[in-house]
Amino acid sequence: MTAWLDPVRAALDQRTSPIAMFIRDDDGGWNNERLYRLLDVTRRHGVPVDLAVIPDAVDAALARELWQLTMCGELVAVHQHGRTHVNHEAAGRKSEFGRSRSVAEQWDDIHAGQRRLHALLGAAVDPIFTPPWNRCTAVTAACLAALGFEMLSRDADAETFGFDGIRELPIHLDWTGRRGVAAGPDAWGDAIAARLRAASAPVGLMLHHAVMTREDRTLLDELLRLLTGHGAVKFSSMAAMGSCTSARGVV
Question: At what angle do helices 103-121 and 138-146 cross, to 10 degrees?
Fold first, then answer.
């Protein structure tokens, strides 16, 4: 049943240095029941998970749950995921904070989302920003720096901005992306193994609980059992990884 993990196990066995890993789950506020099922899996393995939460999608009930999880040692951290997760680009790739949006528009949306999350969760919110679809512009980064954010997380293929005070912690493995588990468990195992073999910096695994099925969660359970049981891997929160780096550039 776990043969798809054989390449991952081999890659870990071949490592001569440990790998730092983190898990980022996007779209907090959508399909809360699937979020709770996902957290059952990460909790079972004692793995921290960073929730990228859509400010305008959070209701009072979810806010109470998130407050309890973050404040009670449940290995859950929360940060901002855009504002509404709405595409504003008339053409091309989707983005909430893309080239068509002015400084004022981006500032207003980031600030409004920031205020809402802090009103709901206060000190439970980390000063981290994940843009929807993992896309934003240098204007976004400038707004984030001015608003007191300390970290930006996007895809590893995105060009870094290099703003003073803004660390960048990219993700490398997209569970629900077209090169993720959708390609089949065997191909996905090969992709994870390739990343772990090549890793010289923290490896980020991105999840989207709202579209993950029971089979996805079973496969994730199998992967985390392997990773947490192997001495070559150490999981940390995004904030903990950022605190160990310089104030500029890619973690």
Answer: 50
